[in-house]
Amino acid sequence: MAASSSRVMLGPLVAAIDQGTSSTRFLVFNAKTAELLSHHQVEINQSFPKEGWVEEDPKEILQSVYECMERTCEKLTQLNVDISNIKGKTHTPHTEYTHTNASSYYRLYEYVAVLCWLCAVWLDLRTQSTVERLINKTPGRNKNHLKHKTGLPISTYFSAVKLRWLMDNVDEVAEAVLTHRAMFGTVDSWLIWCLTGGKSGGVHCTDVTNASRTMLFNIHTLDWDPELCKYFDIPMEILPKVRSSSEIYGLMKSGCLSGIPISGCLGDQSAALVGQMCFQEGQTACLLKVVLIYLFNCYLLQPVMSEHGLLTTVAYKLGRDKPACYALEGSVAIAGAVVRWLKDNLGIIQTSTELEKLAASVGTSYGCYFVPAFSGLYAPYWEPSARGIICGLTQFTNKSHLAFAALEAVCFQTREILDAMNQDSGIPLTQLQVDGGMTSNRLLMQLQADILCIPVVKPSMPETTALGAAMAAGAAEGVSVWSLRPEDLSEVTSEKFEPQINPEESEFRYARWKKAVQRAMNWETTEPISNGNGETSIFSSVPLGFYILGSMLMLIGAKYIAGQCPL
């Protein structure tokens, strides 16, 4: 009887799928208290078939979702929690994963970024030639040619160029599009379609936050744009229906939660805004994950175009009849991935948690600066030709200094984004709210406060991204177990890190970082250097041929003059 009573007192529960670049997680929250009751995480494998290519298997992603749900429900049962109290479920994917479903063709390709979402991850750079071709046909080769409609520059980071590459380079996809057997979407639409039945009546939809990252979506009309689709030569009929971020899309058709409504969908950065209750103009949420993403919740009811390299995006639309809210966003490609690189590529640490201890052992980079532009630089530069660089090395530099420089790099990139936001918005930031796995690194949090010269606020419950997604699902009409009214929201407990160095020291270190960034620029040519088959073009050997021929003629001439080679 006591056990039964405790189950009843928990009240309605809401679950969230957090589908990230490196893992899938399933989390269950109490809708009355916002308490995280249980969760499970499964790592996602990534493959790198060619230099600059990053892929993930969409079937593995789907399987990981089911596994996380099953394991979490098992844990709840062990805790004597009745899973029938779960009233709604939501998705919070990374917004730049691209998915194509062409009947039996399940190999998906995603963005240029750090990893593969939908088989070609946002870090994937294979679309660089596609981007160059598109920019070349714009007036003045302007990468911001479409920004007035999309809020985005033409970049490998976004979905439309990935789909265009698929249609140009994968025969199965091109044929499926021509024969009307293809559907396209970001990873959220893939998961919703599969979980609501797939080929047996699955719902093909996405929400405004994910749609706004495709370059096919008009952020003013909040729908797919015919002119944008024509520009990329992508048929509109293969695109998912665009819905709000908080409404019932369909019901789960299989698994331990069969019959539960899927009632929310937000991109991870948008979910962080909701989870950290950034509902007022000027509030900022910062995600410190594999990708470093910042959202600035700016002029809420109208989009504002950045003049300093930021993206304009839809922050959220929390209901079918609710207005859309907009944000300025700065996206940085490499944050948590630096830790993985130091561990897997250099081997200077065995686990991610060692990085903080290693950096803290010296407390300085000793003049070493690390620009982790592994796939170019994103906001505010949007410079694909940049590459990673470590400078300021001396014979005294050791792995501890490099670890410290890696953490500082995250902070300097944050500073660049927030400087741009302050210039665009005219609203100086007074404190930074942070979220994500890297917030467990206390040294990083302190460094962030020191470099920004403002307090950094870390929530005591770090899962605010998943919490935001759960809030959207629980607030959906027909579910209505979570109120989003400000007076009903309980304040999240947090820890504040105050700056501990003087502004002059911060400015000096930041200026040195900016100098290092300039060294990283224009490192890689964006011109194609192969014929598409991985073989060097014959024309690239012409200069070498002239050099060899000229050298031979000079040698023969010298021997002739010396009388050693009669002609």
Automatic annotation (TrEMBL):
<feature type="domain" description="Carbohydrate kinase FGGY N-terminal">
    <location>
        <begin position="14"/>
        <end position="275"/>
    </location>
</feature>
<dbReference type="Pfam" id="PF00370">
    <property type="entry name" value="FGGY_N"/>
</dbReference>
<protein>
    <recommendedName>
        <fullName>Probable glycerol kinase</fullName>
        <ecNumber>2.7.1.30</ecNumber>
    </recommendedName>
</protein>
<dbReference type="GO" id="GO:0046167">
    <property type="term" value="P:glycerol-3-phosphate biosynthetic process"/>
</dbReference>
<keyword id="KW-0808">Transferase</keyword>
<dbReference type="InterPro" id="IPR000577">
    <property type="entry name" value="Carb_kinase_FGGY"/>
</dbReference>
<dbReference type="InterPro" id="IPR018483">
    <property type="entry name" value="Carb_kinase_FGGY_CS"/>
</dbReference>
<dbReference type="GO" id="GO:0005524">
    <property type="term" value="F:ATP binding"/>
</dbReference>
<dbReference type="GO" id="GO:0019563">
    <property type="term" value="P:glycerol catabolic process"/>
</dbReference>
<dbReference type="GO" id="GO:0004370">
    <property type="term" value="F:glycerol kinase activity"/>
</dbReference>
<dbReference type="Pfam" id="PF02782">
    <property type="entry name" value="FGGY_C"/>
</dbReference>
<dbReference type="InterPro" id="IPR043129">
    <property type="entry name" value="ATPase_NBD"/>
</dbReference>
<keyword id="KW-0418">Kinase</keyword>
<dbReference type="InterPro" id="IPR018484">
    <property type="entry name" value="FGGY_N"/>
</dbReference>
<keyword id="KW-0067">ATP-binding</keyword>
<dbReference type="InterPro" id="IPR005999">
    <property type="entry name" value="Glycerol_kin"/>
</dbReference>
<dbReference type="GO" id="GO:0006641">
    <property type="term" value="P:triglyceride metabolic process"/>
</dbReference>
<comment type="pathway">
    <text>Polyol metabolism; glycerol degradation via glycerol kinase pathway; sn-glycerol 3-phosphate from glycerol: step 1/1.</text>
</comment>
<dbReference type="InterPro" id="IPR042018">
    <property type="entry name" value="GK1-3_metazoan-type"/>
</dbReference>
<keyword id="KW-0319">Glycerol metabolism</keyword>
<dbReference type="InterPro" id="IPR018485">
    <property type="entry name" value="FGGY_C"/>
</dbReference>
<feature type="domain" description="Carbohydrate kinase FGGY C-terminal">
    <location>
        <begin position="302"/>
        <end position="476"/>
    </location>
</feature>
<keyword id="KW-0547">Nucleotide-binding</keyword>
<comment type="similarity">
    <text>Belongs to the FGGY kinase family.</text>
</comment>
<dbReference type="GO" id="GO:0005739">
    <property type="term" value="C:mitochondrion"/>
</dbReference>
